[in-house]
Amino acid sequence: MTMTSSIKRIVFSGITSLNTQWLKKRSGIDVISPFHHLVSDEPVPWIDKLYGYKNSRQFEADLDWLLRNFRPLSLEQVAGQAQSGQPFPEKGFLICFDDGLRQVYETAAPILLRKGVPAAFFLNPQFVDNQSVFHNFKKGLLLDRLDRMSITPGILTAAGNILGIPVTSPDQLRDGICSINYLNKQLFDKLAPIFDLDFDRFRLEQKPFMDQDQIRQLIAQGFSVGAHSMDHPLYSLVPLKEQLRQTRESTAWVQERFAPRFRTFAFPHVDTGVSKAFFDELVAPDAPELDLILGNTTAMLEPNPRVVHRFIGENPDIPIDRMVKTVLSYNIVRKTVNRQYIRRS
Ligand SMILES: [Zn+2]
């Protein structure tokens, strides 16, 4: 039987009927780590066009299932275990929230507290205190506006001039906005006036991110914090030197402000394309600069025990049991053919 056919058999054979205990025993994954950005019961216009998220009822149901099947782990427990180099005595789960959004303080943290589940929040120093607006949220706001206003030929021409491409339809304009990335993110600011958007006003009125005081309250309640880069670039778009600067400066900033026991970092966006040199610099086994790196290559392991991979836990269409079972099954298949470790060059 080929590998592809065995994956297909597992993935399409009714994943939810698989026995969690059986999967736990056979998978090589010790830390089940779903990552999220927010939990919200209300629409969030700057995010709704970018990705889905769970409401408090769905999030609570996920936590209940996780608690029935795994033990909750704190970031300190995971970092401490990584430091020891020993495998976990028992598999557990670590809840993560990236980007430091205010909905974490308002909605997710009270639920976690009530359930007694620890969690880790990964912060971008340039967003904390709403000092600036994440470029992806500018994209989200522009896409939201695009769907709400009537797009005149004048708007299309003006936007096309800024984007440097001919734009003759709202669909072309949407594609143009979606194609803007970290490297040409200043285009979002140039487009804003055409759509009657003021990102500074948005930042001050909506306060999309937590402030330092709210983060300190969460830490006092037992939650953990780590770094998530300075301003959230996609690492594969920037050179190694800049990847290292973003990582070191954000980790040092978190350390200075909040003095967590371990130096931890979670990749912004994805870790795809990040070279072996990056990991050699920051988590060399003999002299590690960081205690733990959280990646997001779903269901895979890194040869270095100081790197733990997570998976998206907030897709509102996928209950956590289906997601965890898929991740564990996929890892078992990779393990069977000796391909569960990520190879980096
Ligand atoms: Zn992020």
If you had to describe this structure to a student in words, what would you say it looks like?
With 345 residues, this protein is α/β, with parallel strands linked by helices. It folds into 2 domains: 3-133 and 218-336, TIM Barrel, CATH 3.20.20; 135-204. It contains 14 helices and 11 strands. It has helices spanning 3-11, 20-26, 56-69, 75-84, 102-115, 135-148, 153-163, 170-178, 186-191, 199-206, 212-220, 240-258, 276-282, 320-336; strands at residues 31-32, 34-36, 71-72, 92-93, 95-98, 119-123, 224-227, 264-266, 292-295, 307-309, 311-312. Strands 7-6-5-2-11 form a 5-stranded parallel β-sheet. A 3-stranded parallel β-sheet has the order 1-4-3, with helices on one face. The protein has a 3-stranded parallel β-sheet with strand order 8-9-10. The protein starts with a helix and ends in a 9-residue tail after the last helix. The mean pLDDT is 94. Zinc ion binds next to loops.
- Percentage of residues in strands: 5-15%
Radius of gyration: 21 Å
User: Remind me, CATH topology of the largest domain?
Assistant: TIM Barrel
CATH architecture of the largest domain, by name, is: Alpha-Beta Barrel
Structural class: alpha/beta
Tell me the number of strands. Answer: 11
> Biggest sheet, in brief?
5 strands, parallel
Low-pLDDT segments: none
The fourth-level CATH homologous superfamily of the largest domain is: Glycoside hydrolase/deacetylase
Q: List bound small molecules.
A: zinc ion
| Estimated helix fraction | 40-55%
CATH class of the largest domain: Alpha Beta
Shape descriptor: globular
